[in-house]
Amino acid sequence: MKTRFLFPYWFRYLGIALFLVHVPFVFFKDTNGPEHAQHIADNSLFNSHHLFFMATTLLMAVGLFFIAFAKEKIEDEQISQLRLDSLQWAIYLNYLLLIIGLIFTTDTEHILFLNLMVPLFFFIVRFRWVIFRLNRSLPREG
Amino acid sequence: MKSRFLFTHKWRIAGYGCFVAALVFAITLKLLHPEGYASVDLHQVVPSHQNSLNGIHTGVMGMRLHHDIFILLVVSGLLFIGFSKEKIEDEQISQLRLDSLQWAVYFNYALFIICVLFVYGVHFIPVLIFNIITPLIFFIIRFRWKIYQLNRSLKNN
């Protein structure tokens, strides 16, 4: 099986860098973020709030995306199998959490925003964890 | 390769059932409340200090319940359709499934980034809501399309 649609290995570091850049921005979100922008009359594109919102969301989404879908150093069939398995698992978990969130809370807006990054986040965590387990089991056999 | 975490084949029918239920639910609601809850909202919503969407939801309990049931029906229906086993589940099918899933996630994020660039403010909330179901819809369409192509090429050979 060939692995398709993947970024080269160094995109992983690019992704981590983008994600780290995004973190300090989030701390300003309480005073400046998109939730408060609804009360501002100026709803046109590319005002300062829109630019801020674009910057944070794009840095976060693209960063996580690059981390998640960069190639491994050694990309074999087992790794790509693990990747796709993890992706499916992450989608399941995401929808489970989404449903639970919708039933038990009223804070819909934050749930929707979380829904953007949670699948990629779960995917990365689970993929790393499976690879970690694989690496640990290999030396014992060999 | 074994395909894990999949529903059995008959869950697909349950998935379509969920869709029919959602449709019936929507139609009955439209018949019972022709103008929707919109007119109720205007009188009952206490303007929330936090954000407008919360105000709508805490203001009218019926509206909230209605949204919940609707989203649950649609999402579980899509999950059942997308992740139920095929009648003949072999390695190629499960490969196609996972390939399609990855493709759907890619496509969804590409669309999402375009939306972030060009949609803003209150108009962004529908984008977020659609973002719940679009990955599953893209996945199902692409998976079905691939299986259709596969079947056609097998027949031609």
Mean pLDDT of chain A comes to 77
Order of helices and strands of chain A: HHHHHH
Classify the secondary structure makeup of chain B into a structural class.
mainly alpha
Poorly predicted regions of chain A: none
Task: Give the percentage of residues in beta strands of chain A.
Answer: under 5%
Number of helices of chain B: 6
Strand content of chain B: under 5%
Integer tally of domains of chain A? 2
> What structural category arises from helix and sheet content of chain A?
mainly alpha
Q: What's the SSE blueprint?
A:
The complex is a heterodimer of chains A (142) and B (157).
Chain A: H1 11-27, H2 29-32, H3 34-37, H4 48-68, H5 77-104, H6 108-141
Chain B: H1 11-32, H2 38-44, H3 52-59, H4 61-82, H5 91-118, H6 124-156
Helix pairs in contact in B: 1-4, 4-6, 5-6
Q: Which short descriptors sum up this protein?
A:
heterodimer, A: 2 domains, globular, B: 157 residues, mainly alpha, 2 domains, 6 helices
Structural summary, described in words:
- The complex is a heterodimer of chains A (142) and B (157).
- Chain A is built from 6 helices and no strands.
- Chain A is mainly α and 142 residues long.
- Chain A has 2 domains: 1-71; 74-142, no CATH class.
- The longest helix of chain A has 34 residues, at 108-141.
- Chain A starts with 10 loop residues before the first helix and ends with a helix.
- The mean pLDDT of chain A is 77.
- Chain B has 2 domains: 1-85; 87-157.
- Chain B is 76% helix and 0% strand.
- In chain B, helix 1 runs antiparallel to helix 4 and helix 5 packs antiparallel against helix 6 (124-156).
- The two termini of chain B are 26 Å apart.
- The relative contact order of chain B is 0.12.
- The A-B interface holds A 1, 4-5, 34-35, 37-38, 43, 45, 49-50, 53-54, 57-58, 61-62, 65, 69, 81, 84-85, 87-89, 91-92, 95, 98-99, 102-103, 106-109, 112-113, 115-116, 119 and B 1, 4-5, 50-54, 57-58, 64, 67-68, 71-72, 75-76, 79, 83, 95, 98-99, 101-103, 105-106, 109, 112-113, 116-118, 120-125, 128-129, 131-132, 135.
